Amino acid sequence: MDKFLIRGGRPLHGDIPIGGAKNSALKLLVAGLLTSERVVLSNVPRIDDIATMRVLLQGHGIVVEDVDDTGHTISVGGDITNTEAPYDIVSKMRASILVLGPLLARAREARVSLPGGCAIGTRPVDMHLKGLEALGAEIRLEAGYINAAAPRGLVGARIVLPFASVGATENLLMAATLADGRTEIVNAAREPEIADLVACLVAMGARIVDDGAGTIVIDGVERLHGAHHAVVSDRIECGTYACAVAIAGGDVRLIGGQTAHLGAVVRVLEEAGVEVSQEGNAMRVRRSGGLHGVDVMTEPYPGFPTDMQAQFMALFSVAEGASMMTETIFENRFMHVPELNRMGARINVHGASAIIRGVPSLSGAPVMATDLRASFSLILAGLAASGETVLNRVYHLDRGYEAVERKLSGVGAVIERVTG
């Protein structure tokens, strides 16, 4: 099993390329279920979650092919020959639940295993199911599977989400593109990945108006067609590498990074003492002085993202003063705290909040990744620590970050992947 060896204490300088957004590319691949024609996606990241989604789509009969030898351009499309998404695939990745809406819309039936993914909370799918029922689907839960049918097709409806769920918004949005009549999704998620999905669906012939403030109106069409679409850059990857510069010090350009997509992340970085600016198609991050603690609460976009919580907790562990991190999205997302404390951090968890009291330095230690984002928080701690940090279970990291060791080594970090 692979592990990372990290030796800290070196500032970072140079350029890091930011790839396509994992949380967008996965949904755009699923959108290929909505048409038999070819949808060509460029700027797709080469990560394990994409490989898992390819296998899932191929199981439905969809043809998934590399367009070139880079692995970053993929075409999807074809006839649906199987409407079951089995447990052995769905359990690996929560985003698999998003095949439910498109399968119902196009094939009028679906049998989808309840999802898995990172162990960071229950993350129920109730909003997905209630929204699809509002569109006319008949749904039964049996033996760990969602059995859904819409024998006469889906019908437009007004759906008010009790929470601005990204996954529910995406599932209902895709399903509504082929529904009969108008669908209005109120309190829809507003993440840049939603706008990216809307842009791709419109290119495929969907009729969608997104006001950008939480209301999306979809007028269903009979069929969608093929299209070409470039995946938006990954704001979470961008924010993660910004934290790397912040914790290690230095001056790095994040090529393809967009401050406009990062919402509250840029504000928190600046409050912590980090300089952030947009320079053409790159986000520049600099830190030469000390770090300062900041109180942060995770919120739906454009608030501070839950997917950046672990990385900032590592950053605040070496910041002057105390910080409070309050998690409002997932109830079990502090599993990285014991590992950071093994490296000398002073973090105490009280319910949904963690108090981080900054220390002058961290010490390298053997640590274990528990989920995707927590994995990178331990790399960040290793960049700031004295001695060697050994990060085990990096398969979590490989689900969502491409070529981590190459990107960090390219700007001066000492990090090595070893097998065994």
UniProtKB/TrEMBL annotation:
Phosphoenolpyruvate binds at residues 22-23. GO terms for molecular function: UDP-N-acetylglucosamine 1-carboxyvinyltransferase activity. The active site is at residue 118. It is an enzyme of class 2 (transferase). GO terms for cellular component: cytoplasm. The keyword Transferase applies. Gene3D superfamilies: Enolpyruvate transferase domain. Coiled coil: none annotated. Keywords: Cell cycle, Cell division, Cell shape, Cell wall biogenesis/degradation, Cytoplasm, Peptidoglycan synthesis, Pyruvate, Transferase. The keyword Signal does not apply. Pathway: Cell wall biogenesis; peptidoglycan biosynthesis. Its EC number is 2.5.1.7. GO terms for biological process: cell division; cell wall organization; peptidoglycan biosynthetic process; regulation of cell shape; UDP-N-acetylgalactosamine biosynthetic process. It catalyses: phosphoenolpyruvate + UDP-N-acetyl-alpha-D-glucosamine = UDP-N-acetyl-3-O-(1-carboxyvinyl)-alpha-D-glucosamine + phosphate. The modification 2-(S-cysteinyl)pyruvic acid O-phosphothioketal is found at residue 118. It is found in: Cytoplasm. Cell wall formation. Adds enolpyruvyl to UDP-N-acetylglucosamine. Belongs to the EPSP synthase family. MurA subfamily. NCBIfam families: murA, PRK09369.1. This is UDP-N-acetylglucosamine 1-carboxyvinyltransferase. It comes from Lichenicola cladoniae. The gene is murA.
